[in-house]
Amino acid sequence: MEFASYLAGERWSDHPACTHAGLSQLARAVNDLTSNEARSRLAPLIPSVIGLNSDDPRLELVLAVHAVAVALPDASLDRQHALAVGGLVCVAALERSGGSGLPDLVEEPFARALDSTPEAAGWARRFIDRTSSRWRREEVSVRQTHAVLAMAADGVRSACADFPDDRLRALLASAIDITERFVAAERAAQGARRQTADRAPDRAAHPATGRAANEPEPVTA
User: Quick one: 155 exposed, middle or buried, by C-beta within 10 A (0-12, 13-18, 19+)?
Assistant: First the structure.
């Protein structure tokens, strides 16, 4: 992420302002866990994270749920338990916030990951039920989502599966893709709201006539 800050013209930092904090967290975790031999293969992904940002708090949850969905099926059993808890807590918070807007890329893959790990899913649900006052909050903090992201990257790296470097890179690449889609949808929605506001009659501008500032005068015969 330091190189991303440099390319963006920012102060040299592994926490660049030009990139969403959750995506930066995942990128740092992937970079740290990738072998020295394979780390250079992450470099082509750097330009795509520059300017990729959002103020929508749902994006933190989206990235955490996505990372868990990727890591959960192949993670070791002890990590599966923790990942399932983190994923369930984040997806519940996401649902309370109105959903990801990308269910086929976020909620549905997570549900399939849970289905593929029934023991871990059951354990996590029982754990959350026993500690509901702690986990069923209205908000999940950024610190919590970042912990889930780091845990997911570690789950991918330590899984009993071949080619961990390739799988780590794929995790980051897919997270970048989801972030791009989320930000694009957010910007499209903002543009639509602005257009609606521009077309809406401004009744307050002409209280005497009741006509909007952008409304033509009626034609009389």
Answer: buried
Query: Per-residue pLDDT tens for 123-163?
Result: 999 999 888 766 555 579 999 999 999 999 999 999 988 99
What gap in Å lies between CA 71 and CA 180, rounded to an integer?
21
The beta strands (E) that lie in the chain are given as none
Q: How many helices (H) and strands (E) does the chain have?
A: 10, 0
> Which H or E run includes 57?
none
pTM more than 0.70: yes
Which letter does DSSP use for residue 219 in this model?
P
How many CB atoms are closer than 10 A to CB 56? 17
Residue 56 in tokens: 């929508």
Provide the phi-psi class of 210: left if phi over 0, else alpha when psi is between -120 and 50, else beta: left
Pairwise CA distance, residues 88 & 91, whole Å: 5
Identify the residue whose tokens are 């794929």.
Answer: 170
In whole angstroms, what is the distance from residue 56 CA to residue 53 CA?
9
Check residue 57 and give left, alpha or beta (phi > 0: left; psi -120 to 50: alpha): alpha
Beta carbons of 60 and 145 less than 8 angstroms apart: yes
Q: What is the CA radius of gyration of the chain?
A: 22
